[in-house]
Design goal:
Layout lengths: L8 E6 L4 E6 L2 E11 L2 E9 L8 H15 L3 E3 L3 H9 L11
Parallel strand pairs: 4-5
Antiparallel strand pairs: 1-2, 2-3, 3-4
Length: 100
Amino acid sequence: MSDVASGEVTVVDNKERHQYEAHLDGALAGVLTYTVRDGVAVLPHTGVQPRYEGRGIGGRLAKAALDDARAQDLKVAPWCPFIAAYIEKNPEYADLVVAD
């Protein structure tokens, strides 16, 4: 994804904190929190620091979490409205959503 205006975005899974972290130019720019229970990754919150908003960082976090869920054969519960909207805009992830 090249929608970040400047600098290099790196997304890492901080397993100890149960969150994906987006770093831009060495600074923490955003996080996506998660828990995994019974084969389901619950995604309750995505947040981007105000000064980094509008640079595609939330999308990078969402993509990383959803790609990892698929790789680990997990379903997802997109409690976060941003993640739910991301899945709607990117229907290739719709099969990951756990049935209600």
